[in-house]
Amino acid sequence: SGCVYITWLTLVTLSYLYNCFVIPLRTTFPYQTAENTATWLALDFSMDAIYLLDVVLVKPRIMYLEDGFWVRDIKRTYKNYVKKLEFKMDLLAMTPLDLFYIYIGPNYPLLRVPRLLKIHSFWEFFNHFDKVSPSPYVVRVARTLTYMVYLVHMNACAYYAVSLNEGLGSNSWVFNGVGNAYIRCIYFAVKTATSIGKNPRPENEAEYLFMTACWLMGVFVFALLIGQIRDIIASATRAQTEYRKMKDETLNHLRKLNLPHQLIERVKTWFSYTWQQQHTLDEARLLDTLPHKMKTDVAINVHIQTLNKVQLFKDCDEALLRELVLKLRPVLYLPGDYICRKGEVGREMYIVKNGRVQVVTGADGSEVLATLTEGSVFGEISLLSISGGNRRTADVRSNGFSNLFVLNKDDLNEALVFHPNAQEILRKKARQLVRQNAAREKMNKAEAEVLIQNPEPQPKQPKLLPIVMKVLPPDSGSAKLLKYGSKSVQRRRRPERQRTTHNGVVRQPNSPKVLHSSHSTLPEIGLPKGLPFYYLCFQKVINRCHSVELGELCGGRDLPANNTFQCQVTVHREMTN
């Protein structure tokens, strides 16, 4: 089945076709003359040399199967060839009847008729090409057309022979000798074989017998050959016919349901794109006739590289991967299709074969978090029953036409029944991935928190200042610093008096001030230009409460008015000292 042998077989087949067409042509038509006899003989002997080389050098070296093994030993292959009927036919085809040319002259090409016995080489040629050709239907049609052309050729030669026997132009039925004899006879043979009619009426018994034989050949033989061509073309277009039938039935049913026109157009687009990419609507059915081992090998060559990219299966046993590749199902998504939604319970893992899918968020899916390309994997954690990892955390949408492989949760569990060790490994990896995803999500949220925003119109006095002033004793240095600023001004000591806290509790001077624990998130604070920026220092105390160190308030640099800050102050207890 190698290229060298097929090339040689092509040469042998051309030699055989030469003999098939030329022998009857030279026997009936006057195409062999004294001037071109040497040329015809040179061609004949060249074809005979090809026959001889085929029998002596090529056919005895063709290996064969014995007990399931290929036999390549030349002695054994020679013995195997000699035992076949093919060897006997080759010997008969090389019968040297051409030697009679010495006695009767070279004008009898009919002596080369035994060369036509090498028809098995012609059949073998088309059988081999049928196996290796990417379009075997073309080879089958060519084979059938060769039969038809040869029958028309033989019919034309027979018509000229009958006309020559009765005399050219002797009546209206025979060839009148005007024009190219071969073309006129071919025209007559085609009309007779196809039963077109309008042929001259036969005038004697021999002509009636000839026309009857031609009509029978046209009715049976040509009908058989044309039927074979029809079957070959029907087989070649069977998948397309089934596709069109299913598409028409589906679209008609959708129209009866009065579905929106846009949805029907999406279904039509899915059918068209699927056929354009795969030339079938059920890819798995094509491999159903193959043995399980062979299907596994095919699936591995197609999917194993993609499956190895899945982090969940990175260190798993190869036997498990070989079983999982048969579980992968191809799925096509159109532009804008949502593959999964946030919050859904995940039952499948997706592998991007080609195309692009986007991880989106937001009510309308306008914010794209990530774009996944060929070889990317998502949803692998949902394959295992891990707490916290069974629900989708984001929407995944197809950006264009995307082909994905889908692995179902039930299929994975079915495969893991026979691989308990791998099941535990996968669970550990899944838990690790859940923790990593949780940490990554937490980090992303922290990074996404807005720290600086565009300022809003700010009041002249910062909002934090009155609150801090309520907390501080009025006569403390910190309160005076906040009230009068950092300039050297005369401090006036005011007599201590009762004051009321922010929650309405009357407190005496120099007495412990107990405030209710409260947590309040203060609004954004805008600092006008020229006002010092102060910060609070928080210290943790041993007695399980937090004290606010209000004594160390530092003056900072001047900040522009367009800066805003968020501050959260928690006051648990204030110590008098």
From TrEMBL:
Pfam family, one: cNMP_binding
GO BP: any one term: monoatomic ion transmembrane transport
Segments traversing the membrane: 6-25, 208-229
CDD domains: CAP_ED
Key words of the record: Ion channel, Ion transport, Ligand-gated ion channel, Membrane, Transmembrane, Transmembrane helix, Transport
Localisation per UniProt entry: Membrane
InterPro entries linked: CNG_cation_channel, cNMP-bd_CS, cNMP-bd_dom, cNMP-bd_dom_sf, Ion_trans_dom, RmlC-like_jellyroll
Record region (Disordered): 485-517
Segments forming domain Cyclic nucleotide-binding: 312-416
GO cellular component: a single term: membrane
Record bears the keyword Hydrolase: no
Membrane topology reported for the UniProt record: Multi-pass membrane protein
Family matches, as PROSITE patterns: CNMP_BINDING_1, CNMP_BINDING_2, CNMP_BINDING_3
PANTHER family found in the cross-reference section: CYCLIC NUCLEOTIDE-GATED CATION CHANNEL SUBUNIT A, CYCLIC NUCLEOTIDE-GATED ION CHANNEL SUBUNIT B, ISOFORM A
This protein's name: Cyclic nucleotide-binding domain-containing protein
Native organism: Ranatra chinensis
Taxon lineage: Eukaryota, Metazoa, Ecdysozoa, Arthropoda, Hexapoda
